[in-house]
From TrEMBL:
The protein's name: Integral membrane protein
Residue intervals passing through the bilayer: 57-76, 83-102, 108-129, 136-157, 169-190, 202-220, 240-260
Keywords assigned by UniProt, alphabetized: Membrane, Transmembrane, Transmembrane helix
The organism of origin for this protein: Saccharothrix espanaensis (strain ATCC 51144 / DSM 44229 / JCM 9112 / NBRC 15066 / NRRL 15764)
A Pfam cross-reference name: BaxI_1
Superkingdom of origin organism: Bacteria
Region of interest called Disordered, as start-end residue ranges on this chain: 1-21
Signal peptide as annotated in the record: none
Length: 266
C-alpha cells in the first residue's frame, strides 16, 4: 500500500488477494458480475466491499452531524457555554482517535464515539461562528461536501492519478502546513503575529492553500480504502476506512469555516 499522510490508513492488514473485490476505481458491473475479485480472506470473514465503506462512512458522518447540530443549538440558544462543549469534545475525540490509531484494530464503538465527540466539538465552534456571522454554518457544510464530492469524482474518473510522486508531494505539503500552523500557535503564545491566522490577506491565502492540501488528502484516503478493497481485508475494516475519511473531513470543515469567517469580516 502506498504511504499516506492520514495515520488512520497506515499499517493496514492485507489478505494476499491479487485483484479488486469492489473498489472505488472499478465499474459497478465489474463488481456485480465477478470482475476484479480477490480471494476471500484466510480468516473466513467476508471481504470488504465498496458498499461497506460507503455505509460505515455514512453512519459515522450522520453521528457527527447529529451531535453537531445539537451542540450548535445549545450554544446558539444560550443553554450551554461553548467551552463546556468544545473542550470535552476535543479531548475525548483526540484520546479516542489515538486509541483507534495505535490499537490498529477496527472498532465500531470507538469510531462512533470519536464521531460523536467531534460532532460536539465542531458544533460548539460552529455555534460561535454562526452567532457572529449569520449563515456561515450552512456555507461551511455545503463547501465541505462540495469539495469531498469533487475530489471523489476526480478520483473515480482518473483525472488525477495517485502516483508515488503525487503521494510524496501531498504528504510533504501536509507536514509543512502542520509545522507552520504549530509554529504560528507557539509564536502566538508569546505575542508574535506572523499573519497566518489574523484574517488578513496572508491568512486568506494560507487558508486557501491548506484547503487545497486537505482536498488532495482525500485522494490518498480514497486510494487507501481502495487498496483495502483490492486486498480483500475483512469487512469490519470498513469502520477504519470511515474513521480515516472523517479525520480529513473534520480538518477540511474547520479550515473552510475559518476562511469564510475571514471573508465576512468588515
Amino acid at each position: 500500500m502506498r504511504t499516506t499522510s492520514n495515520p488512520a490508513f497506515r499499517n493496514l492488514p492485507t489478505s494476499g488477494g491479487s485483484g479488486s473485490y469492489a473498489g472505488f476505481g472499478q465499474p459497478y458491473e465489474a463488481q456485480q458480475y465477478g470482475g476484479y475479485q480477490s480471494a476471500p480472506p484466510t480468516t473466513g470473514e467476508r471481504p470488504i466491499t465498496i458498499d461497506d465503506v460507503v455505509t460505515k462512512t455514512a453512519i459515522t458522518l450522520a453521528t457527527t452531524l447529529a451531535t453537531g447540530f445539537i451542540s450548535a443549538w445549545l450554544v446558539l440558544s444560550g443553554q450551554a457555554k461553548p467551552l463546556t462543549l468544545m473542550l470535552p469534545g476535543l479531548i475525548i475525540g483526540l484520546v479516542v482517535s489515538l486509541i483507534i490509531i495505535f490499537k490498529r484494530t477496527p472498532s465500531a464503538p470507538l469510531v462512533l464515539i470519536y464521531a460523536a465527540a467531534e460532532g460536539v466539538f465542531l458544533g460548539a465552534i460552529t455555534g460561535v461562528f454562526e452567532g457572529m456571522f449569520k449563515g456561515i454554518a450552512w456555507q461551511a457544510i455545503l463547501g465541505t461536501f462540495g469539495v469531498f464530492i469533487a475530489m471523489l469524482i476526480v478520483y473515480k474518473t482518473g483525472a488525477i492519478r495517485v502516483t508515488p510522486r503525487l503521494t510524496k508531494w501531498i504528504i510533504g505539503a501536509t507536514v509543512g502546513a502542520a509545522v507552520l500552523m504549530l509554529g504560528n500557535l507557539v509564536l502566538g503564545l508569546f505575542g508574535v503575529n506572523v499573519g497566518l491566522r489574523d484574517g488578513g490577506t496572508l491568512a486568506i491565502v494560507f487558508s486557501l492553500v491548506v484547503i487545497g492540501i486537505a482536498a488532495f488528502n482525500f485522494l490518498l484516503d480514497f486510494e487507501a480504502a481502495n487498496e483495502m478493497i483490492r486486498s480483500g481485508v475483512p469487512a469490519k475494516w470498513a469502520w477504519w476506512a470511515a474513521f480515516g475519511l472523517m479525520t480529513t473531513l473534520v480538518w477540511l470543515y474547520l479550515e473552510i469555516l475559518r476562511l469564510l469567517s475571514y471573508l465576512q469580516r468588515d
